[in-house]
Amino acid sequence: MILVTGTKRSGTSMWMQILRAAGFESIGDAFPKNWGDTLREANPQGFWESSLREGIYFRSNPNPETGHFLRPETCRGHVVKVFPFGVVRTDMAYIDAIVGTMRDWRSYDRSLTALRALEASTSTNPLPPWAEWWVENYELVRDLVVRRHRSILQSYDSVLREPEQSIQLVLQMLGRGDEAASVRAVSQQANGSPPSAAEAPSDFVPVFDELFDLVDRRLPLTAPFIEKMNLTHLAVVESLGIKATSPGVS
Prior knowledge:
By secondary structure, the chain is of the alpha/beta class. It has helices at about 10-20, 35-40, 85-90, 105-120, 130-145, 155-160, 165-175, 180-185, 205-215, 225-240, and strands spanning about 1-5, 25, 80, 95-100, 150-155. The chain is built from 10 helices and 5 strands.
């Protein structure tokens, strides 16, 4: 399967729409459940999510409602949206390739805050948006590095800025796809995010910005920067009073 991943509000729905336009079969619905009534404003073109968005593992496969078991060979080449912690949970047998997308943490803060208002979330103690952005992206980068998936990680902004180049890189990795139709799908998207006055602890901001800058410019994450990420992650989770979910990237 081709896993489209990233945090909420990072462009995962856009990539689902792009790859569907390219000719890939997808798993999921444009507006699951009642989302067409409650969340259409957040993504008018559809979310294309499924019960697999938290990962393809024992809790989601077999399907807890229908009992249907998804075998790796029956869904080869299908596109499915899976959020970062779901990628970490997913068995390697189900991962053919990963298309990752990242939004900068400031615009993510604004967008997630708006989404939470639409969802009327009942969560009593959600992480601050900046922390959610970091923890999920750190876990995604860690999994890409440790398990060495065939993958591409790009920024939401770079796809809007350079759709032809961004899509060409992905379709070359996947070995097929209608590039012209894919590029047309990008034209339906918003023109980026308005500036945000979001704040995060000042000690973390330089690393947050550097991570996004490297992804946005499609530059490699060097060993020294990865070590910087590890140290930052330990400091972030300590500041939040939560336990690190995994050892560092290596």
